[in-house]
């Protein structure tokens, strides 16, 4: 690997020291790093004591069967009890757990006492279907409270849930149901999307028509639209659940009892069913939610804008916040429905104090205009979070200024479906933050940047991000495919025993970590490593650019050439292309000057907001566009291609 990488990101010199009042009241202090280093297992044992255990573990970590870890060996707990009942028993039954907001403005406040009743009824209902601990349950639901009741009811019974994002196609759902051999599917008649009722059961019917493992389909009524009905298989939620007893005695399960499977879109091949278990997972999501979001359960109103169909929703809507007794907003709809100020209206309405979202949405807000957030009272906010992709410094600064009132610390949290919980992030009140850098592994976490040979690079050096020590919420495998688990994550640095994250990263002169995107998104131009993120960052730092995606396209002379796809801000036209090429050359260096800058109306994104560079690479290399089934909007590629044809 060459180390003459470009470093415009690391020329970022602005830092933001913690405000003294925030630091004084922060949940953690700088001493946590040293404490965790001095006694890692002792540190994690202390974090595990955030939870209520039915029986204590005998040892903290068993790594003898690496790379399959056992954490809190022999300990027993019930995950749902920890997220629900114990808060009621501690006298917080009247605290709102979920402040649910429907897209159209209908709202429902669910206290911890309500949640205990709802989860108990749901658990009794699932038990009445003959489901037993270890059985798999597929869930495809919109962002409605029943989605959370269903997940927690599974956890309560030791059933393994597999939540499939509501926008996934029948084919995608079918492959996941088949892979996990789910006995039950929980879905709804439909979902509200931008003010319209869209069908859901029609899709799930198609998906499970040939799934032999499915015995029942449990259907929540959300939109009231008419649905097809398969007698004997289909059951209405209100028929089965509403009449159940609202008490249920939770049973304790082993710390390593499987909690859920969540499929990730791998770069190639079938999605991987990432397996997470109970005690270690809940320990780390509770700890990180406490430390990284500085949660004060008595006074904070927390809002994570993810969908429960993704790991962010699992860890930072369902398990982390509820384990910590948080009050949180759960929002059903899209950010621009019925208007582009919807998120700010919700922050104002509920007095949201902690807001956790993705860079793609931040850049969308930038595109919509500064005046929109300026029209709302956002003064309740005290902390902002970012997740999902590297956040470019311009978006970070915009987020801080226009949403965070120049006062809120921003935590840029790096992690993955596989890691289960946050791994690298500033600690609010402790870390002086730097726009664009996730900075340091959390106390208790081991991460480093290494070269091809697995040797750690020095300050200013770039390479691969690896995790060099096991962590409690680590994946325990890929469902049904142990070989792929070893091959994907543990073979690249097998000798060193490192987990290979698949991300490129660098250290700056201070030793802070900068994530540079997936290694498959790192370009090689004339022997120079150039991150797509770096070029994108340079492009969006130009005032005429709203959003940019960059790919490396095969080039006979330079190996790869840089092709940029940009969405311009209002009032700009394609004549700015030459200016943008020069701008990148100026920001990064002549070798980073894009070969082409193509103006497009949209970018192809997955439903979790990740840009599908593979499809853009197809266009850049003049190929037929490949598989678009995981796009949030499948018409986007046609829109991009037709725009390019008319332009040329
Ligand atoms: C990949 C994991 C973690 C929940 C959502 C995505 C990228 C994630 C950051 C960040 C830079 C980030 C990485 C990672 N990523 N957070 N803060 N800075 N990159 O989960 O779908 O499993 O994707 O998202 O490339 O490997 P996921």
UniProtKB/TrEMBL annotation:
InterPro entries: Ac_CoA_lig, ACAS_N, AMP-bd_C, AMP-bd_C_sf, AMP-binding_CS, AMP-dep_synth/lig_dom, ANL_N_sf. Its EC number is 6.2.1.1. Residues 90-479 form the AMP-dependent synthetase/ligase domain. One of its GO terms (biological process) is acetyl-CoA biosynthetic process from acetate. The keyword Glycoprotein does not apply. It catalyses: acetate + ATP + CoA = acetyl-CoA + AMP + diphosphate. ATP binds at residues 388-390, 412-417, 503, 518, 529. SUPFAM superfamilies: Acetyl-CoA synthetase-like (SSF56801). Residues 534-610 form the AMP-binding enzyme C-terminal domain. GO terms for molecular function: acetate-CoA ligase activity; AMP binding; ATP binding; metal ion binding. It comes from the Bacteria. Its cofactor is Mg(2+). Residues 32-83 form the Acetyl-coenzyme A synthetase N-terminal domain. The modification N6-acetyllysine is found at residue 610. Keywords: Acetylation, ATP-binding, Ligase, Magnesium, Metal-binding, Nucleotide-binding. CoA binds at residues 193-196, 312, 526. The keyword Iron does not apply. HAMAP family: Ac_CoA_synth. NCBIfam families: Ac_CoA_lig_AcsA, PRK00174.1. This is Acetyl-coenzyme A synthetase. It comes from Actinokineospora alba. The gene is acsA.
């Amino acid at each position: 690997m060459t180390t003459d990488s470009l470093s415009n990101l690391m020329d970022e010199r602005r830092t933001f020291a913690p405000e003294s009042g925030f630091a004084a009241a922060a949940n953690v202090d700088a001493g946590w790093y040293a404490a965790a280093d001095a006694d890692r297992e002792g540190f994690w044992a202390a974090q595990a004591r955030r939870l209520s255990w039915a029986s204590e573990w005998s040892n903290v970590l068993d790594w003898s069967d690496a790379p399959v870890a056992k954490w809190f060996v022999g300990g027993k707990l019930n995950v749902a009890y920890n997220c629900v009942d114990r808060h009621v028993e501690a006298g917080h039954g009247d605290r709102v757990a979920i402040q649910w907001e429907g897209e159209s403005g209908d709202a429902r406040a669910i206290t911890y006492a309500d949640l205990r009743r709802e989860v108990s009824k749901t658990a009794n209902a699932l038990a009445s279907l003959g489901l037993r601990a270890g059985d798999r349950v597929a869930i495809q639901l919109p962002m409605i409270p029943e989605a959370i009741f269903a997940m927690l009811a599974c956890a309560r019974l030791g059933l393994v849930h597999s939540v499939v994002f509501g926008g996934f196609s029948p084919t995608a759902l079918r492959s996941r149901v088949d892979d996990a051999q789910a006995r039950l599917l929980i879905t709804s008649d439909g979902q509200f999307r931008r003010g319209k009722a869209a069908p859901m059961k029609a899709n799930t019917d198609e998906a499970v028509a040939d799934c032999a493992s499915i015995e029942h389909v449990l259907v929540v009524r959300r939109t009231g639209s008419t649905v097809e009905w398969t007698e004997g298989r289909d059951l209405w939620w209100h028929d089965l659940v509403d009449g159940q007893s609202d008490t249920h005695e939770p049973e304790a399960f082993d710390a390593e009892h499987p909690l859920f499977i969540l499929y990730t879109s791998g770069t190639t091949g079938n999605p991987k069913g990432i397996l997470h278990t109970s005690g270690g997972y809940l320990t780390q999501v509770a700890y990180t939610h406490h430390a990284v979001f500085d949660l004060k359960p008595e006074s904070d109103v927390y809002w994570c804008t993810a969908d429960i169909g993704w790991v962010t929703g699992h860890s930072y809507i369902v398990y982390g916040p509820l384990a910590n007794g948080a009050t949180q907003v759960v929002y059903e709809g899209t950010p621009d429905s019925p208007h582009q100020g919807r998120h700010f209206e919700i922050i104002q309405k509920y007095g949201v104090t902690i807001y956790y979202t993705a860079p793609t949405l931040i850049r969308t807000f930038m595109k919509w205009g500064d005046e929109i957030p300026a029209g709302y009272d956002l003064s309740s906010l005290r902390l902002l979070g970012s997740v999902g992709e590297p956040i470019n410094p311009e978006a970070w600064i915009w987020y801080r200024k226009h949403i965070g009132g120049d006062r809120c610390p921003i935590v840029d949290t790096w992690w993955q479906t596989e890691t289960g919980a946050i791994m690298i992030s500033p600690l609010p009140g402790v870390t002086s933050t730097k726009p664009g850098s996730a900075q340091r592994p959390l106390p208790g976490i081991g991460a480093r940047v290494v070269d091809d040979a697995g040797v750690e690079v020095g300050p200013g050096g770039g390479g691969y991000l690896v995790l060099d020590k096991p962590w409690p919420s680590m994946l325990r495998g890929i469902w049904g495919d142990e070989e792929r688990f070893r091959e994907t994550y543990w073979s690249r640095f097998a000798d060193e025993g490192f987990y290979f994250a698949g991300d490129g990263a660098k250290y700056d002169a201070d030793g802070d970590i900068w994530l540079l995107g997936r290694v498959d998104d790192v370009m090689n131009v004339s022997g120079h490593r150039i991150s797509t993120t770096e070029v994108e960052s340079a492009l969006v730092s130009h005032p005429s650019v709203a959003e940019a995606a960059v790919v490396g396209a095969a080039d006979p002379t330079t190996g790869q050439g840089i092709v940029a796809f940009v969405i311009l801000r209002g009032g700009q036209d394609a004549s700015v292309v030459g200016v943008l090429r020069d701008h990148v050359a100026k920001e990064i260096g002549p070798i980073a000057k894009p070969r082409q800058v193509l103006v497009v109306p949209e970018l192809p994104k997955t439903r979790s907001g990740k840009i599908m560079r593979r499809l853009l690479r197809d266009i850049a290399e003049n190929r037929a566009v490949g598989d678009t089934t995981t796009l949030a909007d499948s018409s986007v590629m046609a829109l991009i291609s037709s725009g390019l044809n008319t332009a040329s």
